[in-house]
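Try it yourself: sequence plus adenosine-5'-diphosphate, in.
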Amino acid sequence: MLEIRNLHVKLEEEDKQILKGVDLTIEPGTVHAIMGPNGSGKSTLSYVLSGRDGYEVTEGSASLEEQDLLSMEPEERAAAGLFLAFQYPVEIPGVGNMTFLRTAVNAQRVARGQDEMSAADFLKLVREKAKDLKIDADMLKRPVNVGFSGGEKKRNEILQMAMLEPKMCILDETDSGLDVDAMKLVSDGVNALRDAGRSFLVITHYQRLLDHIRPDIVHIMANGRIIRTGGPDLALEVETNGYGDLLAEVG
Amino acid sequence: MALPAAKQGALEGRLATLSLPEAGAWGTEARRDALGRLEAMGLPGRRDEYWRFTDPGLLNAAEPAAAAAFENDEAPLFSAVDRLKLVFVDGVFAPEKSDDIALEGLEIERLSESMSRDIHWVREVYGVLEAGAHSPVPRPHAALNTAFASDGICIRATGRVSKPVSLVYLHEDAGSDAILHHVIRVEPGAEMTLLENGPAAARFNKCLEVDVADTGRFNHVRAQGRDHERVAVTHVFAQLGAESTFKSFTMTVNGVMTRNEAVIDLTGPDATAHIAGACLGDGAKAAFHHDDTVFVRHRAENCESRQVFKKVLRNGATGVFQGKILVDQGAQKTDGYQISQSLLLDGDSQFLAKPELEIYADDVKCSHGSTSGAIDETGLFYLRSRGIPEGEATDLMVIAFLAEAIDEIEDRVLAEDVIERLKGWLARRRRS
Ligand SMILES: Nc1ncnc2c1ncn2[C@@H]1O[C@H](COP(=O)(O)OP(=O)(O)O)[C@@H](O)[C@H]1O
Ligand SMILES: [Mg+2]
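Structure, out:
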């Protein structure tokens, strides 16, 4: 599904290398987790994959189902099936959440050569998905993320994911700032989307999200590299011992 | 007092091609008085503080610059609205293209008819609001309009009017130079909506005087014509009685030069005045210069005024906002708000703003703000990351930016019509 090879990334404006050779292969239908200390480059990796400006790839490659991601526009990557749930979802004053969702769904359908969804079908679908995430009519009407609480923003990300049905979902610290109930809603939302054709990359600090969304493979990232890869137990190890030992191992 | 030579020269040049229309009855006097005011003021020049950001050259010129009518196959704005339609072609009323002038709750006449009868309500308004609006700054093109207007509509609303009166300005002749002057009185308890759209002429000078009596309500939605080369100077003069309401919204796309002035006088307590504008300017096909110059005066207690002006500019387009709130000594409890903002889509475009507050009462709430900025890149990326192409995402953010101004249109159907129009304009620009 996702194939990252020796990815090196620096900031465009500064001489600062952030990713220093990331290798990652995600098979269809699997859930991978990336853990790691703050500042290790996890968000940078997710932004570079989704095409945000400000970063320069100096070496390496990234592809989604054999398509070269790095040469595509952000909207093309989305239409190809990539989705990033933002660590900090963006507020867009003046653009209604519903308008935003419908425009996005239809833009992707058009890009894939499908017909636009009728207003009635869309409404039915969005109501159904929103209900599962306990997103009320008011939240759908309000401008995108404006005045949303931290938890509402994260649930709104999952709603977008549910509506867009991407193949490769990256969740960047979707658990941060969530209380227990919201965490349950969000992970149920993610788990409902799990299937053989869809993969997940879950970036998190904490084991607790991984109790709900059980990963197949766990990676530890530090200082712009993946320094360890293992099974779900690796997350437990980090939870009990912290990153200290792991970082010491790689020096 | 003699005029400076430059002003005198400009005035003589402009007047050379004009002659006072036959008016009959009181009209002749009203026109002569206006000409007198004009001769005392002269025409504006770049040296005048009030014209610092806008070159009045195209307005002052003896002849209009040629402007082609813009051909398009789109249904005009307000087509789907149930309305009383009155059509002007190059500034001349065209009865054969218009609906019958009859609507319950309204008295409607052409200006020439109103001027021909000695006792007439129009006499108390025509040129009267204009004459009172030259201080602290003169507005010569309004006086010129009062003197030389060749046509216009006079409307008196006496009750609640069931549908809007819609003035449609068609432009056919590439060299037309139109001067229209409309007069409106909204009687106590009456309510009406005025719609205006269309380019009108190669050069268009339009004056609208609105006298809203106590408890009257006046709504105004206009869309200025989108002929690229057209030139326009417009004035709205409004006088508001106690507990009256005045709401005016203007949408502008295209036009080499547009100067919209508004002078709103809140004369009775508890009156409300909202004036708003949404402008999309693109200097690619022809120059684009758009100027909103607004003066709101609070003379009475407990009135509310709002000015909301938004401009989106690109490809060398220029936007100007000069807005002032003046609060008289006795106008306690005034609530005045003014915002002017521009969204600059590139580095070539510019927004020039001069917001002013002048307050002589001590118990008031007044605020103003002016900003100029580029599109929010983070927001744009967020939209694109959801699959929305860059152009469409930009358009969404442009419409969102204009929303606060468009929200000033009370009627949702009219507001939607305006939004669809703006979206269409943006989409066409994207394709071309
Ligand atoms: N746009 C940027 N400007 C400046 N520094 C950045 C930018 N993006 C990332 N960084 C820096 O890159 C490093 C990695 O950041 P980030 O990817 O956010 O880490 P993580 O998500 O693992 O906490 C940090 O040192 C951060 O300060
Ligand atoms: Mg991060």
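One thing you can check immediately is this: The two ends of chain A are 32 Å apart (CA to CA).
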